[in-house]
Amino acid sequence: MNIDDLSKDEILLIINKAIEIKANPEKYAQALAGKTLLMMFEKPSLRTRLSFETGFNKLGGHAIFYSFKDSPLGKKENISDTAKCATRYADIVMIRAYSQQQIREFADNSSVPVIDALSDNAHPCQILADLQTMKEKGKDIENMKLCYLGNGNNNVTFDLMRAAALLGATCYVGCPDGEEFNVPQRVIDECAKHPGKVVVTHDAAEAAKDADVVYTDTWVNYGVSLEEMEAREKVLLPYQVNAAAMGNAKPDAIFMNCLPAMREKEQTAEVIDGPQSVVFDEAENRMWAQNALMLHLLGKL
Questions:
Q1: Residue 210 is among the residues annotated as catalytic for this protein
Q2: Is 286 an active-site residue?
Q3: Does residue 140 sit in helix, strand or coil?
Q4: What local confidence, expressed as pLDDT, does residue 147 receive?
Q5: Active site residue: 4, 91, 96, 240, which one?
Q6: According to a count of CB atoms within 10 Å of the terminal CB, is the N or C end of the chain lower?
């Protein structure tokens, strides 16, 4: 499951249900009793593992953690055989992997729903949690202006753009020019199929002007050396979310970061620790949004 596998109505249903589950968790305490979630991890995780495992337990189900270190996906056994076997045991699967292609191949051979819990091309659960948070903070998610500043060649950026396009909202991405950090044309073309407005600009002030939400993500990628990081920071610094960037947005704009965050890098401490920041509400909502998504995929909404 990815953001672009959902319709606008399904996204709105999941967000509204997430808010309801959060307000009335006891009502859903046995919603998935007797069900098993298989959690497959290739990439390191804090929020993804904790939010899925805790969330599934809150629904009355049982979650199993499986690391690719025990058996790399597609290496010892082909992906097709792994999927056909594993999904005889589980009712739903989430996979956090480097390659979305691997996740799609697994899903194509699975007899149960499969969730992309992060890959090189997508981070749909994060975006559902983000949309839930935006709505809780009073934003009109179907008509808002969302601003993303930083690395445009990024899975979170892609899915924020896709979600805005699907919902009919406006998304401005302020990022450096050049292949490393610019949004790939394929993602722009995907978004153009939907009613929302998506704009990629290399002017950070333009991207943030009158925004309802200002969003950023870490500049640190797995496997980046110290030397590469220093060079990366010089290019990305004009897109840092600081007081000036927030000043270009609406006075009641909120600041978001999917975490982890590095203060004085992608955002200043003044912003992330300030009154407009909602990053920890956003992090908590990973659990509630994912619970609503899993209930939807298992036909329990």
A1: no
A2: yes
A3: coil
A4: 99
A5: 96
A6: C
